[in-house]
Prior knowledge:
The chain is of the alpha+beta class. Helix content is 36%, strand content 20%.
Amino acid sequence: MPEAPKILSDSADCIDGIVVENNNKVLKFIEDVTADADEVQRRVLSQILSRSANVEYLQRYGLNGCTDRETFKKVIPVVRYEDLKPDIERIANGDTSPILCSQPISEFLTSSGTSAGERKLMPTIEEELGRRSLLYSLLMPVMSQFLPGLDKGKGMYFLFVKSEAKTPGGLVARPVLTSYYKSSHFKNRPNDPYTNYTSPKETILCLDSYQSMYSQLLCGLFQNEDVVRVGAVFASGFIRAIQFLEKHWSLLCKDIRTGTIDSKITDPSVREAVMKILKPNPKLADFVEAECSKGSWKGIITRLWPETKYIDVIVTGTMSQYIPALDYYSNALPLVCTMYASSECYFGINLNPLCSPSEVSYTLIPNMAYFEFLPVTRKDELTGSISGPTALNDKEKQQLVDLVHVKLGQDYELVVTTYAGLYRYRVGDILRVSGFKNKAPQFNFICRKNVALSIDSDKTDEVELQNAVKTAANQLLQYEASLVEYTSYADTSAIPGHYVLFWELSVKDSTLIAPSVFEDCCFTVEESLNSVYRQGRVCDKSIGPLEIRVVENGTFDMLMDFALSQGSSINQYKTPRCVKYAPIIELLSSRVISSYFSPKCPRWTAGHKQWCTQN
Ligand code: AMP
């Protein structure tokens, strides 16, 4: 198997020659693994299965220590999270026997995908951190082919940790990035010009989101002339940082002017780390103040950080809704999507990072996991969402193809087998083959299956929405009113974005219903939504209050007429529970009689409902 490139060593003096040599090694590694993709995949599967020959899960299905693809595909089922839940719960409750993986489960990664309203728990093992680091180490050498000189400046990245919980069995459960930032792979990363960030690690590791954001912005502003690239993980996070700056720039300027840090920043390690960077700089404070107090924030990124060459954020998938805002704030700097990853596994990278967001494709790196692909065809044009079969029949199972056998232009659902104990696991993402790098396919990210609404990392499906709306609408019955039809959309025209529900009612006397009744309905919907949504509302403040817009009677008939005029079949027409198509949103908006917002945040605590938390 092509060996992973060595990242620059600690002692490296970061001289140009070493950087170039390392970049070449990385690019050669990518060439090799993509050229030999099928053989790498065969070896990955064989390695996973031989290591895990003794695990209960594989024995249960009678794999009997076989490590070949044919037997594996014949006997091991293609599964979803719900199928693994009993095994995962045993691990969470303290069973340390080799249930899914022969190596000890080091922690659970809490996915933004949910099951029964709670984050999914993905088991992981210590060595996966190395695999994640490997994928990160590929990004900048690829980027440097297109933009030289990135090793000469700093990256201003807004990175955050989230709270963690402990399972009843004592394993930590936390998001994958929190796990990575807290690991020695990140904290004690070797001296590398490409991971030279403006944010000291203490500011990233601070759990208080206000203190973390404030101190990262302060350090970023103070080092503004060194910054050559800016970013966050997802587009929504980066925009949140800019909006934070809009609110707090005068306080930040005060700190830059005086070389002190505001008293609201109380975390001693953050204060100490920031104070190592900060010195009084009245000239810079004047400059930032002058830029921020101009009426318009158009191009604020290039104005404040003039050497910035690109914004590194994911804008594929639901994040594409933030592209106009990013273009506005940056005067259309390139938006670069570097990688595609999840709690289950890190998948791949973008080998053409300066392409336009609509053309981004990810090359899956064949030694991250064993990949299979389930062909998908069904697509609901009105909602843009794809809902595939839940359990697979034998014929569907036989349709799964290997990495090198996918067909150009075809859509697939991604299925992974990982070193950490997931076997033929359906990730839930729909990908379209857009080309090949040597033998390895490249994919456009199309969507996450079954997601109706998403603002940030929340993913609300139609069933959850339906249940939440039903619970809330029951409150209308006592006023002799009922819900006739509804649909929804994710409104990101203002930041933070929020969920909007269009409700058509049957009501005897609308004057009998006070606004507070609808506000309670908004709140009830929010209380009924999953934990990732509620965390976004309460903790991250990345989602605004949910809104109900009551529409005139007959609106949903008009919606049906519109759909039929666009070619929908009258026999098959069903009201879409989520809409994205602008003319439909315009139609609905033109019929709004009144609108109401949730008056308060729903409840949220870290960890699954039944666990105690340990922040
Ligand atoms: P999580 O497990 O919470 O980290 O979420 C992982 C999911 O985020 C993936 O399965 C995708 O649905 C989505 N995701 C990750 N990277 C990308 C990307 N580059 N473009 C679009 N969606 C992404």
